[in-house]
Predict the structure.
Amino acid sequence: MDSFEINKIIAAVLLTALIIIGIGKFTDILFHVEKPKKHCNPITCRTAMNRRSRVLVVSMVFTAMLAPMSSAQIGQPGLIQEHWYHSYASLTLDVNEWADENDDIIRLEVAGQTELGRNLWVLQISDWSLETRPDGHPKEVVYIDGGHHGNEHLGTELAFLTAKHYIDGWNENNEYAVSVLENTELHILIMLNADGNDHDTRWNINQVDLNRNYDHYWNTCPTTQPGSSAFSEVETLANSIYMNTVVPDADLYVTMHTGVWIMLYPWGKWPNQPPDWEMFHHVRDEVNSNISDIPIRNANQGLYPNCGTSRDYGYGVMGYPTFTFETDDEQFLLGTVEALSDRLAEELEVMVYLIENVWYWRARLVINEMIVQDTEINLKISNLGHATTSNASLVYLTENGDLLWESETFSVNATTSVDLELENFTDITGSMGQWALYYQKRVIDSSQWVTEPIGDDQIKSVTTQDSLLPYPSLLLQFIALAIAALSSNRRSSNQVF
């Protein structure tokens, strides 16, 4: 612990002590009791003691009420941080301190401001010494936001604890954290509705439900306070701009709330399963089997019909795999003995699973074997990911990336292998170029398209002439043997006669 942290804690303690002393003086005046000159009778003594108890209780209550205010001025020391929800002020100090002390892995950005001008802080966490994964491929991208509803504090704290988990792990040189930050970018907006957070209300300052204000079937479900139009609120507009400009191809999006203990995937508007149901069901089965029995369901069926949510916008418009993570109801008393990290330990474990397996939340096509023979191509393809792709094609590209040839489209289901025979191939292998697979990461139409080159070691070219070479060779061998035999007989005859 450095001197700055020590000074913060000392200041908090001194400030709290001063508050207690001040309140004690105030309550002495309010409940003044003359010290008896003689020994008091039991009733008088009991009355005096009761008054002193009231003084102590009032002091404790006022101290508890004012402690977050005092701590917000100097940051939140670990002890307070574990037992109190963040205010906007204390969060601001915490994220800036993180950024100052961890500039190798943290970039602190502002996605916008609330209606009252509070910054929307975004922690960008990764090993920024590496532009790509160690294997040269692009890093996976995870986007997390918390605090759409200002009074759902446990969801906000889960976003905070997720960031803290990897920052602490990196500083402790833990293998799991180092591996994640070498291969992944984490973008975490901890408190979207900072105005509502500090007023302890669901709505923003305009009395709008921010999680009904997104441009995905906005105001087409029974709801309250969705705003005057989609993205009418500066908070949701800023969040959507960040999605579209900074993390347009995120491989995972989790929005964190509090209320009913459940994880929700699309859709909120409809009871039917989303196109990428295999992926969502895989997550459900893995989490429920190995980590937690938290229900994981379609949002419409698991909770109630809801439209204009960030979850459905993230999936239906952006093409992300998305979850709404609802922590349990708010039976968490400020100042309780229970620590936030203990209260949310199981939820954090689920988040760690989602982040550390983010590589799988898409289709991952791999060529096992490719044989090119005249006008036919035989492919053996495996899907290592947990999402289906329905419109994949094999392409041949020039060195400049121009398309020379493309096959008909084909589908590859999640975690399966297929054998394909592609016909009507035009022989262009004499051109300088490269084979590649072109497909969408997920079935949803909004999902990202990818072009993945095929290595030369995976391709085998066979011509018709080449394929017939063994047969003429055998024939020639037989002819040669026959000629040799005839020659041998003639030599023998000449010797006998």
In short: The CA atoms of residues 20 and 59 lie 6 Å apart. The first helix runs from residue 3 to 30. The radius of gyration is 34 Å.
